[in-house]
Design brief:
The protein is of the alpha/beta class. Helices cover 43% and strands 22% of the residues. The chain contains nine helices and eight strands. Strand 2, helix 4 and strand 3 form a beta-alpha-beta unit. Helix 6 packs across helix 8. The longest helix has 18 residues.
Length: 261
């Protein structure tokens, strides 16, 4: 499982980097730079993509990388940028009270909160508010997928995929496409200064590997719902795979930056 996750994270990283909203990324860096030798805690760090993206903008920053997968933590530490200060923590993200957040100035996460429940998001917002820790959360899927070449089954496939995204992924009934908006709402209610910005993937013919895995993942999720016939799913998937080398798609995401007032 860990090897598969690492391969998927590697495949999507270039699209993630290109999609991140530059304004919020730079604002997060500026907030960290305002306090010398600050600590950032990356929740669900995977192989360390946030560290590799935000870290170089903040020299002298110390990172605490948190994940529940020891193989991914080891890979994140191995790939850390030269000169970066990193510690790794193996932890269950669902146990919010046990998470080692202090004395962080900023918590970060990428493509995490669409896998989490509203209770998890509300609990984290309370914890961050109590300890006056900011949050930079990038790349929460927003439920929108637009293919350059349309197919009659697109609407049904996307709707069922979005329904599947709301299933329990280990942190309670997942928010799925509602994650970014709910995250912003919960943090604003706790008094944070909240900014949001769209961060869509723009996949094109130069990314056939990522497009292939993406549409295969949609098809697999829709199969699990049992709401569409196998013939319909297979026909849609065959059509999609047939154009990955000549077309693309746009996949909506939302970035959120919440800073204590």
């Amino acid at each position: 499982m860990s090897g598969f996750e690492a391969r998927w994270l590697d495949l999507r990283e270039p699209a993630d980097i290109a999609a991140r909203d530059t304004g919020l990324l730079e604002a997060a860096a500026a907030y960290l730079l305002a306090k010398p030798h600050a600590l950032a805690v990356d929740l669900g760090c995977g192989t360390g993509s946030t560290l590799r993206t935000l870290g170089p903008l903040v020299p002298g920053l110390h990172w605490r990388l948190v994940d529940n997968d020891p193989a991914l933590l080891a890979e994140a530490e191995r790939r850390r940028p030269a000169g970066s200060s990193v510690e790794t923590v193996l932890a269950d993200l669902g146990d919010l009270d046990a998470l080692e957040l202090r004395p962080a100035r900023l918590a970060t996460a990428s493509a995490l909160f669409d896998l989490a429940s509203r209770n998890f998001v509300a609990g984290l917002a309370r914890r961050l508010s109590r300890e006056r820790i900011g949050l930079y959360a990038a790349l929460s899927y927003d439920g929108t997928i637009a293919f350059d070449v349309p197919h009659p089954q697109d609407a049904a496939m996307v709707a069922l995929f979005n329904a599947h995204q709301r299933g329990d992924k280990g942190l309670g009934p997942a928010l799925g496409p509602d994650a970014g908006a709910v995250l912003a709402e919960e943090l604003a209610a706790k008094g944070f200064d909240v900014r949001t910005a769209p961060s869509p993937w723009r996949l094109d013919a130069s990314m056939p590997g990522l497009q292939t895995k993406f549409v295969e993942g949609i098809a697999a999720a829709v199969r699990e719902t049992g709401e569409l016939t196998e013939a319909a799913i297979a026909g849609w998937l065959d059509a999609r795979l047939g154009v990955v080398a000549s077309s693309g798609c746009r996949v909506g995401h939302l970035d959120v930056l919440a800073l204590p007032r």
